Amino acid sequence: MGRVLVWLITAISFLTLPQPALSAPKYAIAMQGEPALPPDYTHFSYVNPDAPKGGNITYCVVGSFDNLNPFILKSLRTTARGMMDTIFGNLVFEPLMQRSADEAFTLYGLLAASADMDPERKSIEFHLDPKAKWSDGQPVTPEDVLFTYDAYTQKGRPPYSDRMARIAKLEKTGDHSVRFTFNDKADREFPLIIALTPIIPRHAFAMDTFDRTTLKPLIGSGPYTIAQVQPGQRVVFKRNPDYWGKDVPAKRGFDNYDQITIEYFLNANAKLEAFKKGLCAIDDDGDPVKRERDLDFPAFHKGDVVSETFDTGIPPVVTGFLFNTRLPKFSNPVVRRALGMLYDFEWANKNLFGGKYARTMSYWQNSELSALGHPADDREKALLAPYPGRVPSDVMDGTWRPPVTDGSGQDRKVLKTAFDLLKSIGYHLQGGTMLDPDGKPFGFEIMTSSQDEERLAGIYQRTLEKIGINVTIRSLDGDQIQSRKQRFDFEVLVGSSGFNNSLSPGIEQIGRWSSNAAKTEGSFNLAGVADPAIDAAIEAMLRARSKEDYVAAVRVLDRLLISGNYMVPMQYNTQQWLAYWNYLEHPKKTPIFGYQLPSWWRKPN
Known about the structure:
about 600 residues; alpha+beta; about 20% strand; Extracellular solute-binding protein; SBP_5; SBP_5_dom; Peptide/Ni-bd; signal
């Protein structure tokens, strides 16, 4: 009896001790602050919840494909668009929670109706919607979530393959629930990344063949199924009439077409001609001068084709000439800084873009996250203290700007400044040819995938030739470009390089700029950036608990990227532009992330 009494007293004492606070399951989670929409929200504010369903649409893209599995590395060409797609929608595969396009980073329930995240973000438990089903009618289960992470870890591609490295435990906690417990490698954003990870069905994939390319229609939980595949040419998706999520608030007003076709074309000119003939529903040319010229055709003049611009609230896409710093010729930041002076934006803007562009100078331009116009505060200085001299004074005080030319295409002052910088580290001219410190001719190849990129590369080429730098331009198709990028087999790329930055940068910055990603084949660190200061800035950004610390860390990252001269920024226009056939309609409100094609619909006949 004595031992029983002692046990009872001990148990009662334990129960009366303060226990860790558990948050109630939430319908939505936000990176910072609280979700904008209330628990009883019925739809996102930028959709028409009563949009009519029906009809079909054809989207057109340049390139080809030989694979339907978007989660593997081994693809000879590229994965078909639409499977998991930021533009056309996640037609086949879905994540646990759905991102709102009108908030910096907030997720609302989807496959998981709710989530229970502890205040320190050391764990998160997802409660699957009991109604969630795969397209073949089988239920979505915790076992599917566990299988997803096994498949990604063993045979997936970055970034999916890296996520288990931050997870201490993944366990089923109920018939419809699964919990992730994180280790010390995880950060405060990571629970949201887990919530955005697409889930795949255990019964529809075999682990031993998961990493092989396939053209067999795959089973997903999304609103569409694959109806037809013509390799390299066409994918047809049909809306699933039994789609489980059609009444989920985060999906109301989306997925309005009965059929979506994605057609592939060899080049942009062929795609444009198809649009003019009515085969393609939408054209999204980014060149304001070219698109005005291209709209000179009968259907536009008759009003059958509509031209419209959409305002966004996010930093502009960063475009430019990206250096592969893995190569010795680009390993010196002074060389990259000199080369960065020699893109004549003023000439290009006047002669190619009708003066409608602004110069790209920051990776988070026009936002509070940008280093431009913001002197480094004490938080930033503390983050940079272990890396003295990494950021020039004008970048630290926010006054840095790229050189402004006279717009003539041959501004001698700028040319001399760049030449003198190269000369200061041992480069010199001999017989009109720039020689490096070892006496070898200095030059490089720019890889392009379109006529527009060739034209921009030609501008840069002509300027560089004026100081003896020999530049060649190699034009490849989209599949070849993708393959070369995956292997980091290039010298200079021209284009956006995937730098679509947001108001809530996070874990994607690891894939773009971290030392580890620089060594990982298939990562987005195309420039090969391997800098401990950048690694530290990204870590500080991901671990920040206050908005002030977060903003400071992102600004430090911006200052380091600007200082590193990893690319030669070009130009931007914050407005999105579309031309589309007038049988389409869209919601009145444009969210901060811009137009959302999955929320458009076809006018009823």
